Here is the input.
Amino acid sequence: MRRLRLTALVAGALALAAAAALAAETHTITDATGRQIEVPNDPRRVFAAGPPAATLLYTLKPDAMVGWPRAPGAEDLPFLRPETRDLPALGRLTGKGDTVNLEVLLSARPDLIVDYGTVTATYRDLARRVQAQTGTPYALIDGSLPTIPATLRRLGDLLAEPERGGTLAAYAEATFAEIDAILAAVPEDRRPSVYLARGPEGIETAARGSINAEIIDRVGGRNVVGAGPDGLLTVSPEQVQAWAPEVIVTIDADFAAHVSAMPEWQGVPAVRDGQVYLAPSAPFGFIDSPPSVNRLIGLKWLAEKLYPEEARIDIEAEVTRFYTLFYGVTPDRAALDGLLGTAGHPGE
Amino acid sequence: MLALGLAGALATGAMLGPYPLSPVDVADTLIGHPPDPQAAIVLWNIRLPRVVAAALIGAALAAAGAAYQTVFRNPLVAPDILGVSQGAGFGAVLGILLGLPVLAIQLMGFAFGIGTIALVMAIALALRGMGQVLVVVLCGMAVAALAGAGISLVKLMADPDDQLPAITFWLMGSLAGIKQADVAAALPAIVAGLLPLIALRWRIGLLALGDDEARTLGVEAGRLRLLVILSATLVTAAAVSVAGVIGWVGLMVPHMARLITGPRFDRLLPVALAMGAALMVLVDAAARCIAQQEVPLGILTAVLGGPVFLWLLARGGRTWAE
Amino acid sequence: MGRVTPLVEARGLAVGHGGRALLEEVGLGLHRGRILCLLGPNGVGKTTLFRTLLGLMPPLGGAVFLGGRPLSDLSRAEIAQRLAYVPQTLTTPFAWRALDLVLMGAAARLGPFARPGAAEIARAEAALALLGIDDLGPVEITRLSGGQRQMVLIARAIAQGAEAVAMDEPTASLDFANRIRVGKAIRGLAARGIGVLLCTHDPDQAADLGDEAVLIEPGGVLAAGPAAEVMTAARMTRLYDIPVRRDSLPGGRLHFSGPSGRGDEGPVAGTSAGQNV
Here is the structure.
């Protein structure tokens, strides 16, 4: 709390000084909900409405961040720019568990609020309400995977970082092209069935087409969970047995470590054949958590796991490149081992 | 009749599930000739532990409900009345928040459930004495509200992407993640709680008369009630720690059983045990078969329990006076 | 009489709640085949005395003896084997069958894990038959009238097999005919050699049923002894703090009446509510 107040105080002084100059320089944009909003030409203090937006903002303009939705964990800190590590946890405006207090939001003195994710009437109304209450422009940006390049350019322009936006967008486009090239070489019948396992029991998962499992669809994995509700769902181990996935991707280290000894997972092809992969999660997840630009490296990682022959990706080099470019931190040998070494599975 | 019904429910539970196994496959696997090795894994490692756990938990909750209703002389109380379910729920949810392994989460649920009842009894004793049924129940409600606040706080602090769905799902009750080890862990506590209830089943019925009357009949009412409450709580906490919070069973099943047996606890208990087990096995079979996604048990029991309970209320006076 | 050990005896008994005595120096003795009535105004402490005699609360002073043994030395079951209790009304929320309720009388003689068997069922049925209500056995108590429920409770006391029975205003909520029926049942108990401790608000009933009476006024016992001798108009006037008139009805029964509800002309025989029903 004290740190928050101090930061707010310093920030407040800075903002006041800059306010007069900035106030005059605005222009009008149309956000994803079709709302006309007036935004500053050069936003210096930006509040991210949720984790996806925070990740996006971090990659594009880290010095404009006023805080994190949730404090980064100790394991995330080595992969974050030093100046962002101590930013206060302010809470989130959107998603489950709306925790931010609008007064806390205002005391951070943002000149722009950015939200990144699903565009629905609920979020449009939330944006409208928060903007009316705080007097701060609130831009909502569509958060689907295919639109990432466009989003990076758009938000780069919005944040007065067009060059950086362009660079990152080019990387995203190249990544998509690379994935498409790999998929062209892999016929449909050689694409494995995939199950996304979450939670220590591995029985939380996400359906085909849901934002949490989107990248599995994108790299051509056949998600065994048929189309279902967006978001997470819980299934029974017996259901997984019936699905018999060839590959299991998990974000839970506990599950990855124990699945081979869990009686109810015996005989599942992925477990039997050692095709259980733990996705790295620092500073941001490879699969989702949050569903943002961090998934670009996840696409390559997953493609390499699913098609080791066709993909021909040097994943360590790719991770180093991506982390340097997007996160501004170049992981050393030990950090890479820590990040990818845990990705080992029982078969390795 | 009753044994037949229970056997039928167990058989149905063993037959049904998302993994395609015909009744013949199941029968063959049971007698040691599985059609393929995977059938044996599915049946022995997943489906049967689940059926057994469902039966155990249904029986436990129904027995606890019947015991609470008798000793509190109130047909409308259930295992949640003393805050046991909420207390156990708080402990388990806290375990999920702290990222503990599954067994530790269950232990936390169990310990908090027992802790809740200890707290309720300590407060009730300090206030008025255990003889005052109303005081005990009101203390239970107050402590349950505290535990509920704790649960809300944990939900607020939980990672909304990762932990919150797990917490929410757990709070609605599920046997999706059940395994042999869970059954083995819960079994001793449930048996230890059920044994006194079964052994003392006739005498426990006398507590329904009220303390003074029971004592003049030669029953050490205070001591017996304490033993019954502790036993029923042990059983509830064990069930909740494994399966999450499953409402309605403890309230509804004793009433249904009482329609058959009347209020005599020695006749009520076995019927409630069998009906609770059968009901939970069938409800759990539905939970895993309705959709590819698990349906939380708490939702199903509420959908069943609400109307059944209203029907019982409308019949009124048949199983209880006034 | 003093040479025979009373079934229930109180010596120098002080009763009350939380250390504050309501009644002090209470002495009484209940003998085989006798009916002892407790009379006194509301709130004087009759119920507290009753609960103390039943061992439901500890005495503040003095002692209670059951069959010559101090109550404090007896276990709950031992007390129940010596002294049964018939409550004013049945308070259970469940629809017991009458026979199951009577069966409960066996609890004092059964081990903790035992259930009533054929012998206990026979006893319970005999107790119902004794009161002429054997047809009520399978009926749920929720379907019984108040008088029938009271008879079932008396049958339970019989099945309990105690030599003494304590009754707390057993006819308070009953209609005229049922009062008489229950009264007869109480006399029947005494005729079988059971000592009955009867707490009542009805002086006529006390005089009719009681062999002895104990008048209880605030603080302690006003008078005790043979009912007809103890219940004088003067004592009853003092006890209830209203003018009470005592009349002897044809046949020798006593009738007590207070001022008429219609006016203040004073106690007049034949105008009280009790007479009119």
